[in-house]
Amino acid sequence: MDETRSTGRSDGTFAHRGARRLWRRRFALPLAVLAAAALAVAGCSSSSSSTSSTSSSRTTSANGSLGTFYFISHGCPTDPFWPPVWNGAADAGKQLGIKVDILHITSSECGSTSAEVSLLDTAIAAHPAGIATTVTDATSFSSALQTAAKDNIPVVVLNSAPTASGAPSAANPYLAYLGQQNYSAGQGLATEAASEFSLSKGASVVVIDHEPTNISLTQRLQGVKAAFAPMGITPTVVNTSDDISQGASIVSSYLATHKSLSAILTLGTTGTDEVAEAQSSAGTHFKIGAMDLDTTTLSYIENGTVTFTVDQQPYLQGYLSIVELFLDATEGASPVSISTGPVFLTSSNVKALAKYVSHTGY
User: How far apart are CA 177 and CA 181, in angstroms?
Assistant: First the structure.
C-alpha cells in the first residue's frame, strides 16, 4: 500500500501515513496500555446484555460512596458494533470498584432518538456521580444536557457528538468527547477507497447508510462527499435500516439495477452485513470499503469480501469514558477529549487484532 496515503487527524486535517506512525507512537501506545490493563485486571467480559438496562457494579471501601455512574447509548441490541463499547464501560467499573449502570435502547426502539433521550432524563433524575452518553442529534439532547450542567452532573460524550469536531457548546454542554471525529473518518474512508480501488473521475460509488437519522453517520457521509468532490466523484446514497434483513433486501434491489459499480462503501457494521448478505444472494463481487469493526467484518477482510475498514476502537470509548468520570469524581481531574480513531485495517494488519477483538467482546 502507498506509504504516502492520507489519513484523518484529530484536528480534522489530514496527515501522511508517516505522520500517522508518529501519532500512534505518541498517543495510541498509552491507549493500548490502558486497554491492556483493563483486559488483565477485569478479565474482559465476552458478552453484553441486550436488555434496556444492565448493571455492572461493585463498590469498595477504598472509593467510598461515590454513587452510581450511568452509561447511555443509542446502540441497538442487534448491532454487533456495540458489545465492545458496553464491555469497556463494564470492565472499567469492575476494575475501579464503582457502580456503573449501562442503559441502552431496546430492539423495538432501534433508531429512536427520543428513547435514548428518555434514558438520559432518567439518569439525570437519579443525580448520579457522572454520565457518559452518546449524542446522536444536534437539538434533541440539548434540554437534558443543559439540565445536567445546571445540576452540576459531570457528563462526557462518546462515539457520537452533536458537532463534527466533537466540541461542546452552550446548546449542548458536556466536559469531553471520546471517539473519532466522524467527518474526518468519512474523508479517510473516501480517500482510502480512491487509492485501494483506483477510483477516478465519474466512478460509480454507492454509500450505504443504515441509520440516516444518526448524526455521526451523517457526519461520516458529509466527509465522504467532501473528499470525493475534488476527484469528480459524486456518490449515490442508499438509506437502509438497522434491521439487517430489511436492509439487505433494499441493497439487493439496488444491486439488481446497478451492475457496473466501481465500489460500495458502508458507514457501519450493520451496513456492511447488509451489503455482504445482498452480494451473496445476488452473486455479485463489488469492491467494498467499510467502517467500524466486529468479528464478522474481521472475517470479511480475511476472506476478501471487504478490502478495508476504518476502526474507531469502540472498547476504548466505553472504557475511557468511565475512567475519566471516575478521575473527575475522585481527583478533580477534568475530563479531556480523546481521539480513538480513525485507524485503517486491511488484510495486512487485521490479523494482529484477532485476539483483542475476541477478548473485548466484538
Answer: 9
Give the C-alpha separation, 60 to 220, whole Å: 41
Report the residue count for the chain.
Answer: 362
Residue labelled with grid coordinates 468479528: 295
Provide Rg for the chain, Cα atoms. Answer: 20
Return the bridge partners of 311, or none.
343
Calpha distance 302→182 (Å, rounded): 25
What pLDDT digit, counting tens, does each position of 202-234 carry? 999 999 999 999 999 999 999 999 999 999 999
**CA-to-CA distance for 145 and 101, rounded, in angstroms?**
18
Element (H, E) at 205: strand 205-209
| CB of 184 closer than 8 Å to CB of 8 | yes
Domain ranges in the chain are 17-180+314-341, 183-311
Give the pLDDT of residue 358.
75
Q: In the structure, what pLDDT confidence band is assigned to residue 32 with cuts at 50, 70 and 90? A: very low
**How far does the chain reach from its first CA to its final CA, in angstroms?**
27
**What's the CATH code, domain 17-180+314-341?**
3.40.50.2300
CA-closest candidate to residue 301, choices 220, 362, 235, 233: 362
